[in-house]
Predict the structure.
Amino acid sequence: MELFANNLIETILIIGVILLIVEVVVLGFSTFFLTFTGLAAIATAIIMWAGLIPETYAWTMISIAVFTAVFAALLWTKLAKLQNTVDYRRADSDLVGHSFVLPENVEAALPMKEKPKYQFSGISWYLNAHEDLVKGTLVEVVKADVGSLLIRAKKA
């Protein structure tokens, strides 16, 4: 404990950096409390180092509490907007555009579980199409969903 008391500024700085790392790396920037507290600890260490407040546990706690509230008030709306940004675009798939010859007939009207499967890249994919396709047709993948491929006859 004496080591922390003799090196309070460095200890508070290290704690602040660790809180920020945990927030970003472990929690994926999902909660802001550790961000605000980490920034407050770093700010407290800096103003203690500058000699603006005394190096005591009481002043440390007060300063971290005040700075946490200030950072929360200043940054909450900006960080919340950052978190609410959602990209609705579909992720590109390497499967889209892949061509192969149909191993069996594909009937568009069948339920998904009754459709034929195609083994590719170690995974069995259900084959789905908007129109009926016959065995031996050269097809290409139009869209890849979880466990299923939407295919169509490839145009020459």
Notes: The mean pLDDT is 87.
